[in-house]
Known about the structure:
By secondary structure, the protein is an alpha/beta fold. It has four domains: about 10-210, Rossmann fold; about 220-375, P-loop containing nucleotide triphosphate hydrolases (Rossmann fold), CATH 3.40.50; about 380-430, no CATH class; about 470-605, Alpha-Beta Plaits, CATH 3.30.70. Helix content is about 35%, strand content about 15%. The protein is built from 21 helices and 21 strands. Strands 3-4-2-5-6-1-7 form a seven-stranded parallel beta sheet, with helices on both faces. The chain has a six-stranded parallel beta sheet with strand order 8-13-12-9-11-10, with helices on both faces. Strands 15-16-14-19 form a four-stranded antiparallel beta sheet, with no helix packed on it. Helix 12 links the parallel strand 10 and strand 11 (about 300-305). The longest helix is centred in the middle third of the chain and has 22 residues, at about 380-400. One of its GO terms (biological process) is ribosomal large subunit assembly.
Amino acid sequence: MDTPDTSISFGELGLAPGVEQAVKDLGYESPTAIQGQCIPHLLAGRDLLGQAQTGTGKTAAFALPLLSRIDPSLKQPQVLVLAPTRELALQVAEAFQQYATHLRGFNVLPIYGGQGYGLQLSHLKRNPQVIVGTPGRVMDHIRRGTLSMDGIRTLVLDEADEMLNMGFAEDIDWIFDQAPEKRQVALFSATMPPVIRKVAQERLVDPIEVRIASNSETVDTIDQHHCIVTRFHKLDILTRILELEPFDGMLIFVRTKNATTELSDKLKAHGFAAEPLNGDMNQEMRERTVERLKQGQLDILVATDVAARGLDVDRISHVVNYDIPTDPAAYVHRIGRTGRAGRSGRAILLVEPRERGLLKAIERTIRRSVPPMDPPSAEALSESRIDRFIADVRKTMSDQDLDFFYRLLSRIGQEQEIEMIDVAASLAYLYQRERPLDVKEDLPRPQRRDWSDERSRRGEGRNHSREGRPPRSERGPARRDNENLVSYRIEVGHQHGATPREIVGAIANESGLEGRFIGRINIQNDHSIVDLPDGMPREVFSHLKRVFVCGQALRISAAGATNEDSPARRSWEPRQDSGASRFKAGPGQGKPKTFRQSGNVRRQAEGAGPRKSFGSKDSKGFRGDHGPGGRKPRD
């Protein structure tokens, strides 16, 4: 939020009395920077080009002066506001309605795709003074003759950069051509790329330019942090954050529409009140979902960037970037959904090890660092769950009639000769079976890898080493330091531009396996052979099949196996072992286990002895536990 201009008050800006009274009723004391600079020029009828980030109060910056210039007695559209999304159109229309509380005879109408024409046509017949709409639906009504542009005095483009990014450039040009030649134009944009400058030069007349610069390019009241996490632990980290963070309402951003449904389903399975918000939902369903969040019937929305555009809900105290945005500007828009109108907010960014470059790009854009945060610890999670358990017990004691249960427990104690402390312990155990109070293990923290050292060890540079050795992909089979390596085939090779660096990076980042445990890499024309440690969890194997390298899916399979849907050594038998497995057990699954093959029995019968255990106590390796589609974590 930009700093309010405390040197002036709304009463000094020259607003219409009814509009000024509405501002007082809403509790606004001083205009923000953009409001203080824009309102006088718009009141004077000047064209205006405004640049400000989301959450700076720019809706009031144009709504208040335009309402002050409207003639409520004139029953025809006088102001047209174009917005990129339905959500933003509804938000702007709602703001106009709030500010016009004391204007008799005033009407505002939002029109957008996804809503039936019948309802919009009936409202258009009432000749609202302000129309707020998305470009496509506005064009439809103009062509149908149901929206007259003859009385339009002011045309506003809100979030113009987003509208142009969404492909509305030609629509906006067409709408401009239908508007009266003499009209006021106000263009607001978070960024000012050349295409916006071009629109301003062509469509605005002698415009006043207002730019609200912020040292951080984002809302100062938002507490921002990032957490480095492997893909396999993302859901675990998120659910721990949701348990430990005291939030009111939360908005979680993902990249795709499918991911909104998948993640919200997983959160609901963990007991959280979550719903998706995406472009595949019809407008009625989207509006109902947002209203449920506003009313406290939902706590979490899982959304895409477009679906959450213009979303303004007071309850949103936290924004979580589950998937880091590839466009740094999108990060600013995302976290702007919290910390609005001077309220505090918190933003948490989950970053996979391979995405550190995107984090740096975001930090350069906002011109400040996003400090790291540690994943919630097992100890903190246990303490939080124990505190809630105690609170539930105390609340039940004070709120419920427990006479029947006192009699029941007394009967159990007498008939079964069981001490009450034992009964209580058993009931407490049953209470927490799905969500253990005693969380055993911390989730692993990904470590930075020095790939230059790794490439040097493997001889993977583009040029030959000083000794003149060729790259690994052209060398013969490497010596196996650990005989428990298994050869896998991946469907990416020289013709795809693959190098050992890309292959090692993809496998290490996506599985959590440290690069030093990856053995021989033999790159052929259309495929490669990679040696990986024995005992790969099936969930890791399934995930690696879908990982892409150089635009090609790995489609990993056991080298020489007939069943490509299974790892090479499929008959795993988990057993306790003093050594730590490189494939570590998931949270709450007890001591690390190693995996041996049923073939060990045959080896012993043949006198060959059992296969060596997978790892030693000081070995490190696969950090991933059960990922998507795997066994549900116990904590």
